[in-house]
Amino acid sequence: MSQSLTAARPGGLLTWLNGPHHRAALNGFLLVTVAHWAEHLVQAYQIWALGLARPQARGVLGQFYPWLVSSEWLHYGYAIVMLAFLFLLRRGFVGRAKTWWTVALAIQFWHHIEHFLLLWQAQAGVVFFGQAVPTSLLQLVLPRVELHLFYNSVVFVPMVIAMYLHLRPNRREQELMSCNCTGRHADSRPLALHGA
What we know:
Blueprint: H1 3-8, H2 13-18, H3 22-48, H4 61-64, H5 67-70, H6 72-88, H7 95-124, H8 144-167, H9 171-176
Helix pairs in contact: 3-8, 6-7, 7-8
Keywords: Membrane, Transmembrane, Transmembrane helix
């Protein structure tokens, strides 16, 4: 990292993201997550309400760029981005919020493994489990659209709970926070907490 970037972010990127810019980073991450959710919900609506065949139910972007729906690289890339941001922003959470954020991180880690299995099969030109197309483990039980709605739900719900608790900390959690997400600057903590 260049010297000017280090000077602009004392303590490094993680400190910068989880300190003064934690709320902005969370909001940006939430926006990307909700946009991804919208794509899956539109795809489900296309199948169950409009009666489209699954290959034609491509969400919003997939209607204009059909290759997006079938690109395992895109799906795996999104799974990695989710995993990375859940990891990078975790340090800013404390107490109950950190517990819920960690639950979302653990589930997303598994979700990323499932996408890696799909990517591996697509790239190697082989399929597992005797299936006709690349298939993940839980896809043996649930169809792909329903499975991804499930995965997005079980990652999103603990994420939202964590954000809610993060913005409404109890007194002890507020004292431990290093960001100003609640509107209270970390520098306004009692002097005893500034020490070692």
